[in-house]
Amino acid sequence: MGELGFLGATIKGYGCAGVSSVASGLITRAVERVDSGYRSGMSVQSSLAMGGIDEFGSEEQKEKLLPGMAKGKIVGCFGLTEPNHGSDPGSMESVAKPHPTKKGYYSLSGSKTWITNSPIAEVMLVWAKLQETGKIRGFLVERSKCPPGTLETPKLGNKNGLRASITGMIHMDEVPVAHEMMFPEVEGLRGPFSCLNSARYGIAWGTIGALEDCIARAREYSLERKQFKGNPIAKYQLVQKKLSDAVTDAAFGIQAAYQVGRLKDEGKAAPEMISMIKRQNCDRALVNARVLQEIFGGNAVSDEYHIGRHVANLFVTQTYEGQSDIHSLILGRAITGVQAFV
Ligand code: TGC
Ligand code: FAD
Q1: From its phi and psi, is residue 149 left (phi > 0), alpha (psi between -120 and 50) or beta?
Q2: Are 189 and 90 in contact (CB under 8 A)?
Q3: Is 131 within 8 Å of 151 (Cβ atoms)?
Q4: CB of 164 closer than 6 A to ligand 1?
Q5: Of all protein residues, whose CA lies closest to atom 42 belonging to ligand 2?
Q6: Distances (CA, A) of 294 to 260, 291, 320, 326
Q7: Ligand 1: centre distance to CA 135 (Å)
Q8: Cα–Cα nearest to 25, from 160, 164, 207, 172
Q9: What is the helix (H) or strand (E) element at residue 78, kind and residue range?
Q10: Can you tell me the mean pLDDT for 108-114?
Q11: 317 CB near ligand 1 (under 6 Å)
Q12: Which ligand sits closest to the CA of 127?
């Protein structure tokens, strides 16, 4: 992916491709057509880790990390979710205090979980509360700089979805982080949520790519599989309706993602537009993939037909980067002006 220029593709300079948001959406759609796990590894590197560094990092942080990350030589991850705080990251417990013995360093403690790429990441963008202000700040934790016993990143095994990506935890026990590895300006949830705007936008494109693969496979299977008097099951109206619903949702989903991408390129995309396409495309991709799965009958249970893999993956896409109902509440707040989270 690094060789192809897919990593941090929208970033200008630092060895990145510098393409438009629409072009990056098209890349994401094509990659997720293969598997949502591939897209996941790519988005975390690109939108969440590199995107965060590009938007909020100091010039020294950018020059040090972005060129290697663009090539895929340095793998990054994004640690926001904690074992006790997923949908509500504002309540996070990870904390950064002045280091007791190392001058010019913070000491980071806490745990993050369900973190894509964490077991293989050299650079971890960790969000934690600075003790002296109580405000959330972004810290770039470099694995190679962590003394033994301060950092562990165990893999979460036996996942039933997104098996092509690696997911783990980040356990920090007084990890020393130099002051210059904290993002200099950004404070509060605006930091992580700004990175999430780009990642959520990518998921809106990607999930339609996965749905398009389900449609192509279901169409082909329905034309080949014969039941009742040697008819292909594609001849039956109920099967055709399943395909029609899926193709319609895929077409509408792509148009919506395309339009938000154009607005994003013009600097006019509001976060609520991104919540809308992330929620809608993830929900419709999952619902349709589950229905298309029926076309395969018993064969749907076999890995060989791939549909079950997409369905399991699409459940995850509907859950991470703000579970679908959480995006309903973001939209509900924008529509009514009334906050449902408190
Ligand atoms: P709220 O009061 O809404 O906002 C706090 C501050 O953040 C600002 N803000 C945004 N800024 C930029 N873009 C956005 N989309 C923003 N949304 C909010 C806001 O203006 C405010 O700024 P300030 O300066 O006034 O402080 O905060 P809240 O705590 O009430 O938020 C509620 C809620 C539910 C919306 C939020 O917590 C939420 O979105 N929860 C979902 C959590 C989530 O998305 N986690 C994702 C983890 S990362 C991940 O899943 C990666 S998977 C990747 C992969 O493998 O592909
Ligand atoms: P919870 O917050 O416990 O929610 C459980 C259910 O309750 C959901 O259905 C939710 O919608 C509902 N709910 C919660 N609050 C409300 C409310 N107020 N009103 C109505 N319903 C509510 N995180 C990262 O930081 N970085 C990553 O790289 C990353 N990668 C991931 C990879 C995978 C494979 C997975 C599965 C997750 C990943 N995550 C990552 C974590 C992901 O963002 C969280 O799982 C997600 O935000 C939901 O949090 P939770 O699992 O704690 O669920």
Answers
A1: left
A2: yes
A3: no
A4: no
A5: 320
A6: 32, 6, 25, 29
A7: 14
A8: 207
A9: strand 76-79
A10: 98
A11: no
A12: 2
Summarised one tens digit per residue, pLDDT across range 67-90 is 999 999 999 999 999 999 999 999
Question: Which three-class secondary structure state does DSSP give residue 227?
Answer: strand
User: How many other C-beta atoms are found inside a 10 Å radius of the C-beta of residue 335?
Assistant: 9
Asked if 266 is an active-site residue, the reply is no
Please name the residue ranges forming H helices in the chain: 21-34, 36-43, 51-56, 59-71, 190-224, 237-265, 271-295, 307-319, 324-336
Structure tokens at 220: 């082909």
Considering only CA atoms, which residue is closest to atom 45 of ligand 1? 321
Q: Once rounded to an integer, what is the mean pLDDT over residues 145-164?
A: 96
Strands (E) located in 84-149: 95-98, 105-116, 123-130, 136-142
- Would you give the end-to-end CA distance of the chain in angstroms? 41
Task: Scan for tokens 């529509």, then name that residue.
Answer: 335
Q: At what angle do helices 237-265 and 190-224 cross, to 10 degrees?
A: 150
Is any atom of ligand 1 closer than 6 Å to the C-beta of 193? yes
* CB of 323 closer than 6 angstroms to any ligand 2 atom: yes
Residues 1, 44: Cα–Cα separation, whole Å: 13
- β-bridge partners, 204: none
The per-residue pLDDT for range 289-319, each reduced to its tens digit, is 999 999 999 999 999 999 999 999 999 999 9
Tell me the per-residue pLDDT of 14-69, one tens digit each, with 9 for 90 and over: 999 999 999 999 999 999 999 999 999 999 999 999 999 999 999 999 999 999 99
